[in-house]
Amino acid sequence: MLKTTPLNETHRVMQAKMVDFGGWDMPLHYGSQLDEHHQVRRDAGMFDVSHMLVVDIRGENVRDFLRGLLANNVDKLTLTGKALYSCMLTPEGGVIDDLIVYFMTESWFRLVVNAGTADKDIAWITRQAGQSAPQLEITPRRDLAMIAVQGPNARSKVWATIPGTQAVTEFLKPFQSVVFESYFIARTGYTGEDGFEIILPADDAPAFWQKLHAAGVAPIGLGARDTLRLEAGMNLYGQDMDETTNPLESGLAWTVDLKSDRDFIGKFSLQQKPVRQKLTGLLLLDKGILRSHQKVIIKGGELSGQGEITSGGFSPTLNQSIALARVPVELAVGDEVSVLIRDRQLAARVVNYPFVRNGKALV
Amino acid sequence: MMSIPAALKYAKSHEWVKAEEDGTVTVGISHHAQELLGDMVFVELPKVGRSLAKSEECAVVESVKSASDVYSPISGEVVAVNTELESAPEKINQDAYTAWLFRLKPTNLGEMDALLDAAGYEKLIAEEAH
């Protein structure tokens, strides 16, 4: 039996093609994944991301607990509503999950974690708290829904949908949030476009979705969500990193705070291990489509060896295939590599990512 | 039914086959197949002159979602390919039955009899949906 979000019936009425997405019955697209992708880059679209889990952690010294739990440093969060992207690591330095943590008050922090890892995350956090912070109350919030509204016109369309929101959200910077009535509104996203992620009571989600739709926000499926995040160069848990890979070899060194004295789970292991690989962008020069798990063949000299594509696909904005690949650290931007697709070796160039930001191609 | 033309034959692997008056056969993928795959972004066609066995992998259609092999519904020699699809793969989504992939000169036209007719193909789709 697949799990469903509060918007399941709404997706069906909107003619979504529904798929089993890690045990959740979710919309892949509502007609055309390509059209939906462009809709977000050019105007505004909305995603049901209620399969992701909001976890509230309340109690005394919650900040202390998160200092030890997360690889990024929650001491960077000084303003109410400020958000931070972080990995949660195993003692060996593997990635249990990547998440966003919001600072609400000194006795309340909010996490948003991935759907596929939610049960594992809750078990891990509960166990850690049991050892070092038994006073904390850890509450999975399945009573909430989450809708991401993304695109250059996303914010203005949200303002038109919820009266009063413009005044309280207009001056939010990226990675800031605010609570307004029953809405939690954060200027975050997973598309490389401006917009909000809005958390609200599950029961209110269908009516809110319909209002956004009436304001000209198109429904977008998880298919386009994946091509948008790939163009934006954002990691996908389970593909670009997992418990067997560490964040320093997954393009996430910027999220790991090794500078401060603070100790956190996984820190010791990360300091011991030499970094031999990295994530890089690839742009396919020949015709074809890069896909995850294809081998990257690096020719010549000491770099001779192999890498592997972790996420690949067609970039609707560039009209060309792009990928993230795990390769030896020495490989440089501009180098040419071959990718083994079926029985053929196709040429690709190593490029910096993101590939696309705010509607503009960067490669 | 509009999406399964009665004049065509179908392979279980979701190709359609049309017998032409000149003795060649034209092959494409069905409307149902393109619907399952989603927006097409790349097509790899066989070389003209290649000999294909029945059920041999001979082309690839890739959608935003995934790559999918196309099998030759009958044996024969490739006499033409629809190169227009290489720059406009979305034509398969627009009309799967005019966006043909390749044309064969059959080795044994009798193999056509083993293919499904429209009713048989409709039944197959219904079965696969369960």
UniProtKB/TrEMBL annotation, chain A:
Keywords: Aminotransferase, Methyltransferase, Transferase. The keyword Nucleus does not apply. It catalyses: N(6)-[(R)-S(8)-aminomethyldihydrolipoyl]-L-lysyl-[protein] + (6S)-5,6,7,8-tetrahydrofolate = N(6)-[(R)-dihydrolipoyl]-L-lysyl-[protein] + (6R)-5,10-methylene-5,6,7,8-tetrahydrofolate + NH4(+). Its EC number is 2.1.2.10. Belongs to the GcvT family. The glycine cleavage system catalyzes the degradation of glycine. This is Aminomethyltransferase. It comes from Nitrosomonas mobilis. The lineage of its organism: Bacteria, Pseudomonadati, Pseudomonadota, Betaproteobacteria, Nitrosomonadales. The gene is gcvT.
UniProtKB/TrEMBL annotation, chain B:
The modification N6-lipoyllysine is found at residue 65. Keywords: Lipoyl. The glycine cleavage system is composed of four proteins: P, T, L and H. Belongs to the GcvH family. PANTHER family: GLYCINE CLEAVAGE SYSTEM H PROTEIN, GLYCINE CLEAVAGE SYSTEM H PROTEIN-RELATED. GO terms for biological process: glycine decarboxylation via glycine cleavage system; protein lipoylation. It comes from the Bacteria. This is Glycine cleavage system H protein. Pfam families: GCV_H. Residues 24-105 form the Lipoyl-binding domain. InterPro entries: 2-oxoA_DH_lipoyl-BS, Biotin_lipoyl, GCV_H, GCV_H/Fam206, GCV_H_sub, Single_hybrid_motif. Binds 1 lipoyl cofactor covalently. It comes from Nitrosomonas mobilis. GO terms for cellular component: cytosol; glycine cleavage complex. The glycine cleavage system catalyzes the degradation of glycine. The H protein shuttles the methylamine group of glycine from the P protein to the T protein. Its cofactor is (R)-lipoate. NCBIfam families: gcvH, PRK01202.1. The lineage of its organism: Bacteria, Pseudomonadati, Pseudomonadota, Betaproteobacteria, Nitrosomonadales.
